[in-house]
Design a protein that fits this description.
Jelly Rolls; alpha/beta; about 20% helix; globular; Rossmann fold; 6-stranded mixed beta sheet; TIM Barrel; binds beta-D-glucopyranose
Length: about 850
């Protein structure tokens, strides 16, 4: 008889981990607490400890390099995931990421980003899920479960109150205890307590006067109340002092040089940091190593991860499930493909879609599908698609499209990179595909003094083009063998990683003949001396428009006789990215004028919005349909085409209120005053703030939280629920749902609570539970939604429940004509 070995009890594993941690010398212990390099922890082969590799995250897994040859699946942005309102999609999203991580030798993913959508101006809004803590918490937990089911760690970030980018390294978020618990901590809680995240990332900012990596919040509630037994990793450079080692900050990233190392050894030796603190951190790092399978003698958390997931299929599904249809006059959508002879596709983003946001979240997918391409593929062969750009969106230098580049050395597509030593001799080289090249801590051979890029670029059309180079440092550019400049490009923004995010540029005009190639050679000289090991060089073209009015006029002519005009509008990397906040919510360039002009000549105008966060749509009532596609990931264009042509329905609901005007937005500010960003709205964030403002006679948003149309309609019946629950009890609500339309579809049933006569200040109403269901045309079903006791509680030095009657509102969005019931807490 064979017997399966029983897993070792957790307490025994813990004891062995601690003994192992204690067996290390102080120097060995401390060496584990700062990264070995930019992306991994130190290995100690003598004890069978391998390195743990960490990688961004959160909508794809980049791996240890930024090399486009090692491509990554690019999933829709966090805001799109938030709009799915689907734990099932979030779990599978996590599984695809976990699978990607394993493929790339990554042990922990730096995501999900679960800061709240506090202000729509927030630069990283696109990365985060929602303005609501319950929706965020439940999707984040499902994401974490998905990643970790693959034996890979997930890292909810950025803990805590990191809702803006302005002065992001120094800003102090000032947040009162109640909103801290009910909103910002609540967003993280389930990922730790239920999904048992193996890591959490501490943020750059301070919270109530103490920087995150030294903040007591790392201990309470994270460790004490929530039982977090994983690793607190700092955001990159967020450890600011030796003293941070006295806090529950475990791992300093990146390395190898930081504030800890020898200074921390000295601090332990002279008693400023207790040795027990160090041993505790080391135990946690060993526990993580054991979980991800890089510590000999310990079973990994998941021995053989199940499943083989199709990343592209999930990317497409998440993009369709997250797309929110805000308007569909006269049921224009879905279009009947058989009736379309001429389709006008308009907009810069239709051709150059933004499929992901800028900053550390960026990955390099093998391909992306633009809406133009998606529509061309999906429409019947006899439908003519005519494209016009209409208005310029992308600003500044854009990487050359890969098919326009030819590597003269290898005689293959792309470009040749040559590494040169100080004497100008070749010491290495590689054939690359993309003209935006990034080396961060790896990939540049020892002894390199300069890097040369050679390519032959074939412009898409004859005429004058503006091309150039973006980088920080000394660079020389030659065009067809003649030197055109040799300059020092200096970064004045002082942003960490400016070379990557927002490099200074030099451009020049080049006139090309039809089909003729231009030989480009760039020589970049590496700076001498220490600094962050980041080299980023961008060769590319800038879109120039001689006559913006003529571009609009051309699009109008295109739209005038078309059976339908699809206008794709959106943001660009210069206004929506990590590293800075937005100044306003306007669509860049002449896009508003473009939509107005097109809609004026074609009543069948559909606008697809390609942004990661809210933008103003002053024309929204003049067009037939509005579809929000977010940053839809690599399969974005397919998802858009399937939705417009009705092979998929738009499944999304707004995870965040969508304003009509900037001045209406109740919580807007992202700029610290004297270093402090005061969260003065307290618990009234997002739709809670809008409701409070509306109650006082102020403006409502253009589209409320939870809103989104499908291609069918649903009726909700009277909910069944208990008349009363004891303090601490959950409330089970069951809701009859009928599909009253003529095709199958998905309903997202939302339960809100209200407490009009409360003794405590409360939101007008708040989301307390949700669940989706798919029903055939005419079919009925019942949706069971559990309202957790926590949704009936408020924080007042501890979680409290006010006895008495709560109103239960069941609907399809925040402002629906609700089914109303009551429950008494006794
Ligand atoms: C970002 C993090 C990211 C880290 C590593 C930081 O600048 O804030 O979200 O994980 O860089 O790239």
């Amino acid at each position: 008889m064979t017997s399966t070995p029983r897993p070792e009890p957790l307490a025994a594993t813990d004891a062995r981990l601690r003994t192992l941690a204690e067996s290390l010398t102080l120097e060995q212990q401390v060496s584990l607490l700062t990264g070995a390099d930019v992306w991994s922890t130190r290995a100690i082969p003598e004890i069978g400890l391998g390195r743990v590799v960490l990688s961004d995250g959160p909508a794809g897994v980049r791996g240890e390099d930024f090399d486009e040859r090692h491509d990554s699946v690019s999933l829709p942005s966090g805001s799109a995931l938030g709009a799915t309102w689907s734990r099932d999609v979030a779990r599978r999203y996590g599984q695809v990421l976990g699978q990607e991580a394993r493929r790339k030798g990554v042990h922990a993913i730096l995501g999900p980003t679960i800061n709240l959508h506090r202000s729509p101006l927030g630069g990283r809004h696109f990365e985060a899920l929602s303005e609501d803590p319950l929706l965020t918490a439940s999707l984040a937990a499902a994401y974490v479960e998905g990643v970790q089911s693959m034996g890979v760690g997930a890292t909810p970030k950025h803990y805590l109150a990191n809702e803006a980018e302005t002065d992001r390294f120094t800003a102090d978020s000032v947040v009162a205890g109640r909103p801290l618990r009910e909103l910002y901590l609540a967003a993280f809680e389930e990922a730790v307590t239920a999904a048992r995240a193996w890591l959490v990332m501490s943020s750059y900012n301070s919270i109530n006067g103490t920087t995150a990596s030294e903040n007591d919040l790392l201990e309470t509630p994270l460790s004490t109340e929530w039982g977090f037994d994983g690793v607190v990793v700092s955001d990159w450079t967020a450890v600011r002092s030796v003293e941070a080692a006295n806090a529950s900050q475990d791992l300093e990233m990146p390395g190898p040089v930081g504030h800890w190392g020898p200074a921390l050894v000295a601090a332990v030796e002279d008693g400023r940091v207790p040795r027990a603190r160090i041993t505790e951190k080391v135990t946690r790092i060993l526990r993580l190593a054991a979980r991800v399978g890089v510590l000999d003698g310990f079973e990994p958390a998941v021995a053989a991860p199940a499943g083989k997931y199709d990343g592209a299929a999930l990317a497409r599904e998440a993009a369709t499930r997250g797309a929110v249809l805000l308007r569909n006059e006269g049921g224009l959508l879905p279009l009947d493909p058989a009736s379309l002879r001429r389709v006008a596709v308009i907009g810069h983003n239709a051709e150059q879609a933004r499929t992901q946001g800028g900053g550390s979240a960026t990955v390099q997918p093998r391909h992306t599908v633009s809406p133009l391409e998606g529509l061309r593929k999906a429409l019947p062969a006899d439908a003519v698609v005519h494209y016009s750009r209409g208005a310029k969106v992308a600003e500044g230098l854009q990487e050359f499209p890969r098919m326009e580049l030819h590597n003269p050395v290898g005689n293959v597509p792309g470009l040749r990179v040559t590494f040169l030593d100080a004497a100008g001799a070749e010491i290495g080289g590689e054939d690359r595909l993309a003209s935006r090249l990034v080396w961060f801590g790896a990939g540049i051979p020892e002894g390199t003094a300069a890097i040369r890029l050679d390519t032959v670029w074939t412009a898409p059309g004859a005429g004058l083009h503006t091309i150039g180079i973006g980088t920080v440092g000394r660079v020389r550019l030659s065009v067809d063998g003649a030197e055109v400049f040799d300059d020092e490009l200096t970064d004045h923004t002082n942003v960490l990683g400016a070379a990557l995010f927002d490099p200074p540029r030099r451009t020049l005009g080049v006139t090309t003949a039809a089909g003729g190639g231009v030989a480009l050679s760039a020589l970049y000289r590496l700076p001498a001396g220490p600094g962050i090991p980041l080299t980023a060089i961008l060769l590319g073209e800038e879109t120039m428009v001689a006559d913006p009015e003529a571009e609009i006029a051309e699009a109008v002519e295109n739209a005038r006789t078309a059976d339908v005009a699809v206008v794709v509008v959106g943001t660009n990397a210069a206004i929506e990215s990590e590293g800075f906040d937005r100044q306003n919510l306007d669509l860049p360039g002449r896009q508003d004028a473009l939509v107005e002009a097109v809609a004026a000549v074609n009543p069948r105008t559909v606008v697809v919005v390609n942004s990661g966060s809210p933008v103003l749509m002053p024309w929204r009532e003049k067009v037939a349909a509005v579809l929000l596609g977010w940053f839809g990931g690599q399969e974005f264009g397919d998802a858009v085409a399937h939705i417009l042509l009705g092979t998929a329905e738009p499944g999304g609901r707004l995870p965040t209120s969508w304003p009509a005007a900037l001045e209406d937005v109740p919580v807007l500010d992202t700029t610290p005053v004297d270093g402090r960003l005061v969260y003065g709205e307290g618990i009234h964030l997002g739709y809670r703030a809008w409701l409070k403002q509306q109650a006082a006679g102020g403006a409502a948003p253009a589209y409320p939280f939870g809103f989104g149309l499908g291609y069918t309609t649903f009726a909700l019946g009277a909910p069944s629920l208990p008349a009363a629950v004891d303090v601490g009890g959950d409330v089970e609500v069951s809701v009859p749902v009928t599909n009253t339309g003529s095709r199958a579809g998905r309903a997202v049933v939302q339960v809100y609570l209200a407490r009009p006569d409360s003794a405590v200040d409360r939101p007008v109403r708040w989301l307390a539970g949700y669940k989706d269901t798919v029903l055939d045309a005419g079919a009925s079903g019942t949706v069971a939604i559990r309202v957790p006791a926590r949704s009936l509680a408020h924080y007042d030095g501890g979680w409290q429940q006010e006895r008495g009657v709560f109103t239960v509102l069941v609907g399809r969005h925040l402002e629906d004509d609700f089914q109303v019931a009551e429950v008494e807490v006794r």
